[in-house]
Amino acid sequence: MTNTTTAAALDTVPRLLARNAKTYAEKAAYREKEYGIWQSWTWGQTFEEIQSLALGLLTLGVKPGDHIAIVGRNRPYFYWAMVAAQSVGAVPVPLYRDAVAEEMAYVLDHCSARFVVAEDQEQVDKMIDVMDDLETLEGIIFLDPSGMRKYDKSALSSYRELQQIGRDRKSELQGELDKRLAAQGSDTTCVMLYTSGTTGRPKGVVLSNRNIIETAKNSCEFDSLVADDSVLAYLPMAWVGDFIFSIGQAYWSGFCVGCPESQETMQKDLNEVGPTYFFAPPRYFEGLLTSVQIRMEDAGPFKRWLFKIFMDHAKVVGPKLLDVKPVGLMDRLKYNLGAILITGPLKNTLGLSRVRVGYTAGEAIGPELFDFYRSLGINLKQLYGQTEASVFITQQKDGEVRADTVGTPSPGVELRIADNGEVFYRSAGAFDHYYKNPKSTKETKDKEGWVATGDAGFIESDSGHLRIIDRAKDVGKLKDGSMFAPKFVENKLKFYANILETVVFGNGKDTCVAFINIDLTAVGNWAERNNIAYSSYQELAGHPEVYSMIQSNVQAVNASVAQDEMLSGCQITRFLILHKELDADDGELTRTQKVRRNIIAEKYDDLLGALYDGSDSIFTKTEVTYEDGRKGAITATLEIRDAQTYDRKKVAA
Fold first, then answer.
1. Taking a C-beta distance cutoff of 8 angstroms, is the pair 433, 444 a contact?
2. What's the pLDDT at 6?
3. pLDDT at position 299, please?
4. For the chain, give me the number of helices (H) and strands (E)?
5. What is the distance between the alpha carbons of residues 645 and 569, in angstroms, rounded to a whole number?
6. Rounded distance, CA 213 to CA 427, Å?
7. Which of 94, 162, 231, 348 has its CA 20 to 30 A from that of 268?
8. What separation, in Å, do the N-terminal and C-terminal C-alpha atoms of the chain show?
9. Who contacts 295 (Cβ-Cβ below 8 Å, separation ≥6)?
């Protein structure tokens, strides 16, 4: 990794690193909070850390084309491990750190991983548990040695000791490293990321340097991201969004990546970092809003009144100011006063006061939720993307931000809508292929490079904005022929702080019904204020007053849905509150927290049947997975309630 690489085309991530080590040598590349103290590494130091690890990997016998899995929380060491793997010609394969050993074993076996870079004893133990069943797995490189003093070290290597070996043998191995770097180009595989697997086994998405770098370049130019910007890396490293933000865009623009101390301290660390560029899925923004609503319910009457007065005004004026639209002097003064008293302190508490560009994606966000953050003066926009696209398919331009669309095609992206309404795209970011899966590759990407997204939508003729209706496989018709799009209703329900998750059914049926998960934090806080005792999620979820509260939420959403001419038939006629939270460990959600609708319908077919047969209640027994991996079962008798529906014409009037 010598300076001669900086003269070459910037067509690989290691070459971008070499450029940054020279151009931004003294600028911060990574920050991490550990033991309550922020540590920082410049681009020059990052170059040395990665080079040392790359040389160390050579001593282990890593060959070009080998797969190296990486599992741990967001830490600079693991981003360095990914780039070090690339430097020696290997392919990094990040894993979800909360996945159980069996899930990891599937990925490790599928990609024939030779080595794993693991964070600590917990992750090492998972690897040891499955290692005997994996023919290709040769060794584990661990970062944190705590608790592993008596482990058999024959297949274990210390991350830091491996770096030191690389430093000690640099003169001997530098030539081989330079040779491997020189052999790489834009078509060299940059990373392999596994899809969330909403409908089956995860697929390995092979992304080249061209895919990542062209996408990073175009998206950085789109939002004017530069070396002075910063992000907080807190999303799973196995997710494509984290890779494009924390490596693709960071290495292209040279901005700084901050890593929180833990998931539990993430919100506090976000406040301390104050990033200028921020991404979060709708679920994160829903959780933040829930915490705000809980705090306001606990506040005194005057503070609640003040909050309402200025927030109502901000919802009208805030988006206009962001879009540089004319605002009257008095309205502007009132908004500025609100910024001093309410919205400014709130943004600071949320850690979003310095955000210049913010995005949300992953699934549709409720318009009320979206408008709330825009009203605070946070430049929150929507993008539409997927792993196979290296994230970006569409983005919202400044001044063209709307809650009901996902924007126009990102730079370098072409869109088309098939006859059945499915969205297709073609771009430099489009993946190369699915690993060991030519059949799925052929079904998803045609010979001309068009990729099927699996989502249904349409392009507005006047604005060119793309509107996503739902997953193509989930969009259907009710028995009367009207459109059924469950996500549209689900996102409206999740705007309410009381509701964490919901699954709506109705395809081929006369009416729509719903399973609902309450938000334990929000509803628990409400229960305490109302002197309602409970000992578990199940007990609280089944409380009659909780049911009445959720019923009012459902009926309010029905009134809103009734106003939509195309989707008014999707009003919920009956619902129940599930006796357990939907959980990725139980297979009900993906590791990125997406609902696995078909699996839920199959697992809870007795509940679904009761919703449609007119039952007032149903007894059910459900298998659950505990945190330590043990299986168990819980039983409950669930109440089923009817919800009022509305005539579209009457509501409109």
1. no
2. 36
3. 85
4. 24, 29
5. 9
6. 12
7. 94
8. 69
9. none
What CA–CA distance (Å, rounded) separates 238 from 261? 18
Return the amino acid letter for 204.
G
DSSP letter, residue 5: G
What pLDDT is recorded for position 123?
95
**Helix pair angle (520-529, 544-561), 10° resolution:** 120
Instruction: Tell me the domains of the chain and their CATH numbers.
Output: 3-279 (3.40.50.12780), 476-652 (3.30.300.30)
Q: Nearest 5 degrees, angle CA 594-CA 597-CA 598?
A: 135
CA dist list (Å): 243 to 70, 115, 204: 12, 20, 15
Return the amino acid letter for 639: E
Best CA proximity match to 320, nearest among 374, 253, 265: 374
For the chain, give the percent of residues with pLDDT over 90: 76
3-state SS assignment for residue 539: helix
pLDDT of residue 651: 60
Is the distance from CB of 461 to CB of 450 less than 8 angstroms? no
Quick check: 598 and 474 in contact, CB under 8 A? no
Encoded amino acid at 41, one letter: W
355-380 burial by CB neighbour count: b if 16+ within 10 A, else e? Answer: bebbbbbbbbbbeebbbbbbbbbbbb
8 Å CB contact between 162 and 56:
yes
Residue with tokens 């298998």: 623
> 3-state SS of 545-578?
HHHHHHHHHHHHHHHHHCCCCCCHHHCEEEEEEC
DSSP H helices, 29-136, are 43-59, 76-87, 101-110, 121-131
User: Where are any strands of DSSP class E within 472-520?
Assistant: 476-477, 483-484, 499-505, 512-518
Q: Give me the DSSP letters along 584-639.
A: GGGTSB-TT--B-HHHHHHHTHHHHHHHHHT-SEEEEEEEEE-TTS-EEEEEEEEE
CA distances 27 to 87, 213, 239, 256, 276, Å, are 22, 21, 27, 8, 16
DSSP 383-440: EEEEGGGTEEEEEPPTT---SS---EEPTT-EEEE-TTSEEEEE-TTS--EETT-HHH
Question: Closest Cα to residue 96, out of 121, 78, 83, 112?
Answer: 78
Does residue 640 sit in helix, strand or coil? coil
Maximum Cα interatomic distance, the chain, rounded to a whole number of Å = 81
Closest CA to 570 of 580, 579, 558: 558
Residue type, 231: V
pLDDT score for 147: 92
How confident is the model at residue 419, as a pLDDT? 87
Radius of gyration of the chain (CA): 26
**CB neighbourhood size of 282 (10 A):** 21
Predicted pLDDT of residue 648? 67
Within 10 A of 630 (CB to CB), how many other CB atoms are there?
Answer: 8
Query: E strands within 166-239?
Result: 189-194, 204-208, 230-232
Q: CA-to-CA distance for 321 and 342, rounded, in angstroms?
A: 17
391, 244 in Cβ contact below 8 A? yes
Regarding beta strands 256-259 and 466-471, do their DSSP bridges make them parallel or antiparallel, or are they unpaired? unpaired
Asked if residues 400 and 526 have their Cβ atoms less than 8 Å apart, the reply is: no
In sequence order, the 6+-apart residues with CB closer than 8 A to the CB of 469 are: 421, 455, 456, 457, 458, 475, 483, 485, 487, 488
Pairing of strands 28-34, 189-194: unpaired
Instruction: Collect the ranges in the chain with pLDDT lower than 70.
Output: 1-8, 197-200, 364, 648-653
